[in-house]
Amino acid sequence: MSKFYVGSEIGQLRRVLIHRPERALTHLTPSNCHDLLFDDVLAVERAGQEHDVFANTLREQGVEVMLLGDLLADTLEVPEAKDWLLKTQISDYRLGNAFANDVRCFLADLPSKELSSILLGGLSYAELPIKSSSMMQGMHEPTDFIIEPLPNHLFTRDTSCWVYGGVSINPMAKPARQRETNHVRAIYRWHPTFAGQDFIKYFGDEEKMYDNSTIEGGDVLVIGKGAVLIGMSERTTPQGVEQLASSLFKHGEAKQVIAMQLPKHRSCMHLDTVMTHMREDTFSVYPEVVRKDVQCWSLTGDESGAVKVKEEGYFVTAIEKALGVDKLNLITTGGDSFEAEREQWNDANNVLTVKPGVVIGYERNTYTNEKYDKAGITVLPIPGDELGRGRGGARCMSCPIERDGI
Prior knowledge:
alpha/beta, L-arginine/glycine Amidinotransferase, Chain A, Pentein, five-stranded mixed sheet, 14 helices, 20 strands, 22% strand, EC 3.5.3.6, Arg_deiminase, arginine metabolism, arginine deiminase activity, cytoplasm
């Protein structure tokens, strides 16, 4: 078995991919943050410091931390990878032949670390020190972006997700995030850690138009015992779920996918913003969204790749059956209805389990953390005054690459 294996949401976490936000945040302003899918501008240095606390909390728990910026810089040392990324991320169709070529020539000469930072964090017209013969520079303001920053890369959970013995490299729903996927494609293809290793790529590795088959890792919970729970949200479509399910069954990596429907609004962008797995029989849930009447389907299949779909009743019963537990313990968001709504918005339900019953969460969610504590769940608190403004918690900010099953 390859060492890349994620067998659950709650087994001992061994290796994780995270991204320290730097350059992208410096490019966020009140006038552009909404187009870049951020609700607010962040204090850059403070956000970085908070992220360092998160990384160190993981290391203290014996988790190997991989940083996206470093992995991308290492990948860019591989000539084929660098060539592919420059062509893909700065394509002729994106910038026009002449300008794309000039920008690529300028970038190709930069050291890998700097190039990695620009690909992740963006480049404005003011920051390009060369004069191009194309019309593009004359047509744009200095503050316009040649390469848009990718502040959402902070949420490494979404762009790819490891499910049992393989990875889904996710086609993202929103144009502001689609370039992120090419970075992880390149890393999994060429980075020395991954190149030539025997892991499955279930979905999303080819460059093609995935059309309506979008899926994001925040909606994918590897609940263990061969089962996967997927939320169909604002960002993950039934078409995307069927594609991933078919590939999981084809490779014999999962027995069942439970798909549940979520309301399409910002406060529950992904399943993990309203529900996470903390111990074998324990989930955190935000009851306003995760209601009894949520529609739910069970998908099964075999090596042929055909998917059988059966509508299920109450999703909790479906999960109990899949995990073989008598009764799930659901810990709801803490406080009165005002406090609960506020804490859910600040990702009280989006915790990262590092081993059964031990989770990392934002310290500001005092009511909910107290409830976790009473239920015997240990919360390792991290500051999130700045990071939390991106609307994602510890689970969103982490992509487990190696984790024990249950």
